[in-house]
Amino acid sequence: MVYQFLICFLSGIGAGLGTGFAGMSAAAVISPMLITFLDMNPYMAVGIALASDVLASAVSAYTYGKSKNLDIKNGLVMMSAVLCFTLVGSYLSSLVSSTAMGGFSTVMTLVLGIKFLIKPVMTTKASMEAVSPKKRVIQSIFCGILIGLICGFVGAGGGMMMLLILTSVLGYELKTAVGTSVFIMTFTALTGSAGHFAIGGMPDLTTLLFCVLSTLLWARIAAKFANKASPVVLNRATGAVLTVLGTAILLVNYCF
Fold first, then answer.
1. Buried-exposed string 97-110: b where 16+ CB fall within 10 A, e elsewhere
2. What mean pLDDT comes out for the span 97-124?
3. How far apart are CA 15 and CA 26, in angstroms?
């Protein structure tokens, strides 16, 4: 029980920090930890990770929203496109031969971490708001379609894809990008976890509870810090968290 609690707590720390700082999906951290160290069924591990994502993303979105770092309107538009085209991507994936894309999310986490350290996002809210609302909606739809197709086809990378596109393509400043990303992930994680539990049955409740509470706690701490930090500090903290998490997950996947 102590070993189980320790693994869940450590998983929650990494997942919560990644969610609160960078809108990263908890599945990228929790799943490999549960599979590697608790020998859990992969399908069930993903279900627990998605369930941990729900409250962590929700409390992070609330924290970013209180600080006015959340674009609800375009977040809803993008979320609708993501949900619809994730299904399309999943269908297309079933028609082609399987490719070795399991490390996509982990590699993206590491690359984005290094990117934020080397080339921080310094976009201001003023320049972000200079884009016309109509253009922003159109951009959100097309970017949501792209994210959904990639996530459905590859099966990973949702949080990281959203952060990359919101900052690099849509020109969001970092705090608003993370706030909007976790807002979207609240709903995508909810539907994903419900689907996993409906198909695979309920997981071990102790593991589920420990992971959910640990992820929720650290996501709240990270989100509060992120909203008070300066852009330079936030870029460095986000880059450091993503780089460490990406490296750690690679080690877990390939060294244990």
1. eeeeeeebbbbbbb
2. 70
3. 5
